[in-house]
Amino acid sequence: MLQRIELNTPQLRDLDLNDCLSLRLIQGQCPELEQLNVSSCRSLEAGSLVTFVRDSCGKTLQVLKTIGLMQLQAGEVLELLDACSSLREFNVNGCKALPPETIEAVEQHLLDVQASERVAEKEAAGIVFDALEIQSWEPVPAAEQD
Which of 97, 108, 119, 142 yields a CA-CA distance of 20 to 30 A from 41? Predict the structure, then answer.
C-alpha cells in the first residue's frame, strides 16, 4: 500500500495518482510539473497537497484534478489558487466541503488566467509585427534627409 510518495524529478511534467486510495502524503520537488491528478485519493492530507504544489510546482502547474477529495476545504483551495499562477484547469467536482463562493473563486481564477494569456498572446503578436516592420525598414539616403 502506497501511503507516502516523495518525488525529486526535475523533468516530470505529468503525474497521475488517480485512485491511490491509501496515499496520505506527497512531497518532493517537481519544478516542471504541468499536470497533477490526485482524484479519488481519499486518504491524501489536503495540507500535504497544498505544500507540495506551493513549494514544488505552483509556477508551472496548469492542470490540477482533485475530483472526489472530500477532505479538501475552502482555505486549501484558495491556497492552491494563490500558488498556481498558470492554472488553466482545476477540477473540484465531488469536493463536497466546498461552499459556492469557493467554486466561484476557482472559476474566476481560471477566467483571469485565460484573460492574461490572451493579453500575452496579443503582446507577443505585436512584438512579432514590430520585428517584421523593422526588418522591412529601409534607411533614407543621407542626401534625402536634409
Answer: 108
Percent helix, strand, coil in the chain, to 5, is 45, 15, 40
The grid coordinates of residue 31 equal: 519544478
Q: Determine phi and psi for 128, rounding to 5 degrees.
A: -65, -45
User: Which of 40, 42, 35, 89 is CA-nearest to residue 67?
Assistant: 40
Digit-by-digit pLDDT tens for the chain (146 residues) are 778 888 899 999 999 999 998 899 999 999 999 999 999 999 999 999 999 999 999 999 999 999 999 999 999 999 999 999 999 999 999 998 899 999 999 999 999 988 888 877 777 666 544 444 444 445 556 665 55
C-beta of residue 63 within 8 angstroms of C-beta of residue 34: yes
Selection from 117, 107, 23, 146 nearest residue 37 by Cα: 23
Q: Which of 20, 75, 84 is nearest to 52 (CA)?
A: 84
